Amino acid sequence: MSADENTPVGWEQARELAYQAGRAACAGTEQVPLPDGDGRTLAEPLRARTALPAFPTSSIDGWAVRGDGPWRRVGQVLAGGTPPPLTGDGTCVEIATGAMVPEGAAALIRVEESTIDAEGLVTGVPRPNPEWRLPGEEATLGEELFPAGTPVDPAVIGVAATCGHEFLTVRPQPRAALLVFGDELLTEGSPGGGRVRDSLGPQVPSWLRRSGATVTSVIGPVKDTLDAHLDAIRTALETSDVVCTTGGTMHGPVDHLHPSLTELRADYVVNTVGVRPGFPMLLARVPGPDGRPRFLAGLPGNPQSAVIALVSLVAPLLAGLAGRPFRADLPLVEAATPIPGRGRDTHLALAALDPAGRVATPVGHVGSAMLRGLANAHGFVVVRPGVKVAAGDAVPFLPLPLLPGERT
Known about the structure:
Family: Belongs to the MoeA family.
Helix content: 10-25%
Organism: Actinoplanes cyaneus
Number of helices: 7
Shape: elongated
CATH class of the largest domain: Alpha Beta
Strand order of the largest sheet: 8-5-7-6-10-9
Number of strands: 27
InterPro entries: MoaB/Mog-like_dom_sf (IPR036425), MoaB/Mog_dom (IPR001453), MoeA-like (IPR038987), MoeA_C_domain_IV (IPR005111), MoeA_C_domain_IV_sf (IPR036688), MoeA_linker/N (IPR005110), MoeA_linker/N_sf (IPR036135)
Cofactor: Mg(2+)
Domain MoaB/Mog: 177-320
CATH architecture of the largest domain: 3-Layer(aba) Sandwich
């Protein structure tokens, strides 16, 4: 295993290393029906299968006219029909919004800006700008609408449907499993007698789904023995691309994760990150039977630290495995109050955003073992090493993972 555990990797570098590890292991494509595409990633460019619009389309309810008025009505055009051409000057057809404009029409007149006399002749004045959409106005035949790597959301699905697609070619969704370590954990009831309630087993799967994974299994608590750890990890690796573990990332008497990784011939992508809270975390590559690596992410046992490890290492890894771009530069917000640094480590400070999403206020209850602050936060203010943030400073902000398909 190739990492110096005594030299923590910088937080921003760790994110990039995790992403690049996932990107290198990204492989394969699959086709899914449009309704199943939300939250997936395009594996190839999405191109228009027809011009958009495919034909001249009325933007109004009114009249399609030819020549000078008044105009004699010779028919009606509704959406979904193909009208005959207008061949005679002084004629018009009634036309509905979304209907195909007949060949030979010179202009459209809105129904509310027209009159019909006693003889049934239509009069009105067309507006200066045409009242219809021209073929190819939105897209031309074969035009690339979205590049490979685009996250699919409902709007992308709608565009795909509009231009004639029934399926999307996407990257396989990364599969993730969760192993909860710790003999001290309870899975039900109230804590007591030296045992605490497991809070990571119920919540981490949802964070994984919000980060783009499908969760294959949640197992635990796993007994604090090397054999139990190895058995659980090997079983989870059979059906997952990423196995997340909670706890056991140190070198204490019941911390068996590092020995397990040695036994599995894994190599570290990242071993220890200079970030607080969140120490210690790790990400390792494990050889897969098909030649493609699998990954193990070691999350600390303290709940807030575990979530920080997840957003720091697992979310970028999953983005890489899904073939989507990674946003290394974070949006800037204004700090509402001073926020201390953590010396040579990056400080991820839980904060809530104002309704406009521009000002971040640190929340309370932010100890590494606490979750109340996390529940009241939108994400983390990133305080870089050696920096002390003053009120009013512009600071990077790392949002918590969004729901699938939700825009940043």
